[in-house]
Write a structure and sequence with these properties.
Largest sheet: 7 strands, mixed
Number of helices: 17
Strand content: 15-25%
Radius of gyration: 28 Å
Distance between the termini: 42 Å
Bound molecules: pyridoxal-5'-phosphate
Helix content: 25-40%
Strand order of the largest sheet: 3-9-8-7-6-4-5
Shape: globular
Number of strands: 14
C-alpha cells in the first residue's frame, strides 16, 4: 500500500537523536540548537506517521539515511543565515540589505578599545567621581553642527520620536506643522504620519504636495501649534512646479510664534557632497542650524560614518529638556556607539572637507574612475584566457540607504559572463562563491560587479571568488 511520500518508513526506522547528532555535519551551529532541530524534525515525522488520514501525510523521508540528510539540509540552511562578510558589487554605497554603512577601521578600533576595557564613560578623570556620559562626543557633535548642544540616541527614528514626545507633550498644544510634501515613508515601515501619531502629536498638514509657501505655514499656526517639522526628502525627489519656503523664513516665523523649528535631515552629510563626481550638495546640519533651526536630527551611520545612532543637535535648552525626558533613558546610546561617534566626529572636525578617516562611505564616494580602472584592469587581465569572461565596463554607483536619490556616481565595473549561464543563474552562482559571496547586479542583461563598493583589500578575494565560480 502506497502512502504519499512517507514510503515504508516505520516508527522503528526513526534513528535515535544521539545517532543523528554524531552522524551529521553540524555546519558550525552550536550543539544545543542542532539537537533542538533534530528533535523537532523527528517529532514532525512521528506525527506524520500517526496521521490516520494517509492522504494527508506529507512527503517525509522514507528511511533513516534520508532522515539524516534532510535534517542536515535544515542545519545547513540555518547556518546560511549567520552574519558574514560579503563583497558588495552592487555599487550601492549605503546598502540596507548589506549593513548600510561600513564602519571605518579606525572608528572600529576605538570602539574595540573602549568596549573591551573599563573606561571613563561616566567618570570624571580629574576627580575619579561620577562624570557626564558621552560629554566629549556631545561637545564635538555640537561643534560639528555649529550648535549649542548635542546628544545621542539609538537611531534617527528614535531621535524624531523623542523630539515629538518632548515638544508635543501638552494635549492643548500638540500640533506639528508639516508640509504635505513631507508626509513621507522612510525605509521599511517608518512613516512620518504614523510616527507623529504614536508619539502623541497631532498632525497639521500644510500646503500641497508640490507647493508649500510661508503663508501656508503662517495661516496654520494657532495656540495649538507645538512645533514646525521639516523632514528632508532624502529618498525621493520632486521636480517641476515645486516650491518650499527657505529655512530662514521658517525660522523667523517659528521665532515670532515662539515654537521650535525642527529638521529631520536623515543622511548626516557633514561635508559638501558636491565634491563627489555625480552628486549634488546635500544640506548639512550646520547649514540648517546657522539658518535658524532650533533642533536637527540625523543618522550617526549613513554618510557620517559612525555606528547606528541618532544625533540631535541644537539649542541648549531644548537638548537638555530632551535628556531629562523619561523616554530618553530607553533610547540612550551605549558606550560602543558613543566611542564610535566620538572618533568619527573628531575625524570630521580634523578633516572637514573629506573626512575619509571618519566615514568609509564618504571615502567610497570620493573614489574616481581612474582609481577604479587600474584595479579593474588588474583583475580582468587574470581572466584573459578563461571560460569565465571578465571585461571592464563603465557603470554608475548610487548612494542608497534612502539618501541622495539623485546622485549617480560614474563608476567602473567588471562585466561577468559564463557560457551557458543566464545573468540570473550567474548572480546566484556568485552568491555561493568562496572565500566570500559576491553580490553582483544585473544591468541591461549584463552581470556587473561595481568596483566602487568593493574595498581594494577585497580585490584578491574577489579574484579568487571569480576563479571559484568558474571551477565549481
Ligand atoms: C534614514 C532616515 C531616517 C531614519 O534613520 P535611522 O537612523 O535609520 O533611524 C529618518 N529620517 C530621514 C529623513 C532619513 O533619511
Amino acid at each position: 500500500m502506497e502512502s504519499p511520500g512517507s514510503g515504508d518508513l516505520q516508527f522503528r526506522d526513526i534513528p535515535p537523536v544521539d545517532r543523528i547528532l554524531t552522524s551529521i555535519n553540524h555546519h558550525g551551529v552550536p550543539r544545543p540548537i542542532v539537537t533542538h532541530f533534530v528533535r523537532q524534525f523527528l517529532e514532525e515525522i512521528r506525527s506524520n506517521l500517526k496521521n490516520v488520514d494517509q492522504a494527508a501525510r506529507k512527503a517525509y523521508p522514507s528511511d533513516s539515511s534520508a532522515i539524516m540528510s534532510e535534517v542536515e539540509n535544515r542545519i545547513a540552511k540555518l547556518a546560511q543565515t549567520r552574519l558574514r562578510t560579503v563583497i558588495n558589487g552592487t555599487g550601492v554605497i549605503l546598502h540596507t540589505n548589506q549593513g548600510r554603512a561600513p564602519i571605518h577601521p579606525d572608528v572600529m578600533q576605538h570602539i574595540a578599545e573602549i568596549g573591551t576595557t573599563y573606561s571613563t564613560l561616566e567618570m570624571d578623570i580629574t576627580t575619579g567621581k561620577r562624570g557626564r556620559r558621552g560629554a566629549y562626543a556631545e561637545q564635538l557633535l555640537a561643534g560639528l553642527c555649529g550648535a549649542e548642544a548635542a546628544t545621542i540616541v539609538n537611531n534617527c527614528a528614535a531621535a524624531l520620536v523623542l523630539i515629538l514626545k518632548q515638544l508635543c507633550g501638552k494635549p492643548e498644544a500638540n500640533e506639528v506643522l508639516i508640509s504635505r510634501s513631507e508626509l513621507v515613508q522612510i525605509g521599511g515601515g517608518f512613516r512620518i504620519p504614523d510616527i507623529l501619531m504614536t508619539s502623541g502629536a497631532t498632525l497639521r498638514e500644510v500646503g500641497t504636495t508640490n507647493r508649500t509657501t510661508i503663508k501656508d505655514y503662517q495661516s496654520a499656526i494657532s495656540p495649538a501649534s507645538a512645533m514646525i517639522l521639516k523632514v528632508h526628502q532624502s529618498n525621493f525627489y520632486m521636480d517641476g512646479f515645486v516650491e518650499n519656503p527657505t529655512t530662514q523664513a521658517l525660522a523667523e516665523l517659528a521665532q515670532t510664534h515662539k515654537i521650535p523649528l525642527v529638521f529631520d535631515l536623515g543622511s548626516g552629510a557633514v561635508t559638501d557632497t558636491s565634491q563627489w563626481d555625480g552628486a549634488a550638495h546635500e544640506v548639512t546640519p550646520a547649514e540648517v542650524i546657522s539658518n535658524g533651526a532650533d533642533l536637527v536630527c540625523f543618522s550617526g551611520d549613513k554618510l557620517f560614518g559612525g555606528p547606528q545612532a541618532g544625533i540631535i543637535a541644537g539649542k541648549n535648552e531644548l537638548v537638555s529638556a530632551l535628556k531629562k525626558n523619561q523616554f530618553f533613558r530607553c533610547l540612550r546610546a551605549d558606550k560602543l556607539v558613543i566611542a564610535g561617534l566620538e572618533w568619527a566626529a573628531s575625524a570630521w572636525l580634523t578633516d572637514p572637507s573629506k573626512g575619509h578617516s571618519a566615514s568609509r562611505a564618504a571615502g567610497l564616494c570620493a573614489l574616481t574612475t581612474q582609481d577604479l580602472t587600474a584595479r579593474a584592469e588588474a583583475i580582468a587581465q587574470q581572466f584573459s584566457s578563461h571560460r569565465l569572461k571578465v571585461s571592464i565596463v563603465t557603470t554608475s554607483s548610487k548612494m542608497g540607504g534612502g539618501t541622495m536619490p539623485r546622485a549617480v556616481l560614474p563608476s567602473v565595473g567588471l562585466s561577468i559572463q559564463y557560457p551557458g549561464l543566464t545573468p540570473d543563474g550567474l548572480t546566484q552562482k556568485l552568491l555561493k562563491a568562496t572565500p566570500l559571496p559576491v553580490v553582483a547586479h544585473i544591468e541591461n542583461d549584463q552581470v556587473i560587479i561595481d568596483l566602487r563598493t568593493v574595498f581594494p583589500d577585497q580585490d584578491e578575494a574577489l579574484t579568487e571568488a571569480l576563479m571559484h565560480t568558474e571551477s565549481s
